[in-house]
Amino acid sequence: MASTAARFSICIPSRNRLEAVKETVQSVLSQDCDSWEIVISDNSTQSRGALAAWVETLEQPEDKIRVIDTGGNLQMDENWESATLPATGDYVLVVADRWRLRNGALQVFSNIIDRFDPDLIFWAGTKPHQFGALFATPGGPPPLKISEVSTNKILGDFLDFRGYETESVYGQAIPRSLNTAYKRVLSDQAREIWGELFRPISPDYTSAMAFLLVGQRCIKIHEMMYTPIKGAGSNFSNTSVLGLGHYLTTFPNCHVWRGLDEDVVFSTVLNDVENTLKVTAEGREWIERINVENALKCMMSELNFKEFNGSLLPVARTREKIYALAAREGLSERQISNIEDYVSRSRHRAVELRRWLRRFGLYDTVRSLNDRLRHAGKKSRISEMIEAENVAARGLDVIALDR
């Protein structure tokens, strides 16, 4: 008997972003593929019940959109589990409540599924502003380029940790659930091994490692399929600059990686990656292939970012401790010299001025003024690029496979 389940489960873990999550839902309602369900795990502590009340006004079938009221007490990883466990669709997408689906995204995924039957479909993790104005609007042409990639290739490239080269340490394209459509049966297999698919404090990375160990066939789309909702900032956006804060209260050792006990966000990612991999024999073999030299360069890239934003954290001390870790890990003098060369090439100037502005509460004001001056006069050019995108979108429905 043919399955009556929806092809896609759109799972939205939400917290205190009522207006933004409405836009997320509306972006699903606007899709030209109708085989979907929406599951929202509402972990809000503000306006309790308002989201469920709004959903009731949408005139959708009762089982099409479900809202789960968590009571507002879940950690982030628990909220992601809450949103995805009830999913019944063949493929699951986790959509943050600060993003929307691009127009036509579900139909693009559906076409790929019909053609390739992949375990995973994932897309570029590049930040929207790095594409210029291409993603300034929800619409735009469907992807014209995709690649069929093995999970081993993706995992090997990821563990080489070359994100520091482009200052996109967290932008490496791997299936991190937030940029992925995954087979629901894949998550069932993962939960049998790890207990939960999403674990603290980086549930996107714990799920990615699980997917890459249990999955096989992947299709990579070379464009982002979600666009950001204006005004809905990231929960984690300031953590690198201001410090891990409450994460250290809840998870005291989340940042301690191979003896390095410093306030570095990338250390938490490395911890979550290794803790996921070490559960299976295959994963433990992958741990041996981690490029420690490049991982430490990624940490140094984060320290540069801290300095650029006037962080009051002890960056100089942390650098010295990273060099000490490099020696403990057995890196050669040449490898340590490579790290030192990277730091000297990539560090920002005037960092003491930035720290001074941050210390006296002036940094955000000065940066906002500077940004307005830098971007003055660019609006008309951006508008022209958006119009060009809209024109190009008409009639483009071909998927080109790049092997």
Automatic annotation (TrEMBL):
Coiled coil: none annotated. Residues 9-95 form the Glycosyltransferase 2-like domain. The keyword Protease does not apply. Gene3D superfamilies: Spore Coat Polysaccharide Biosynthesis Protein SpsA, Chain A. It comes from the Bacteria. Keywords: Plasmid. CDD domains: Death (cd01670). This is Glycosyltransferase 2-like domain-containing protein. It comes from Pacificitalea manganoxidans.
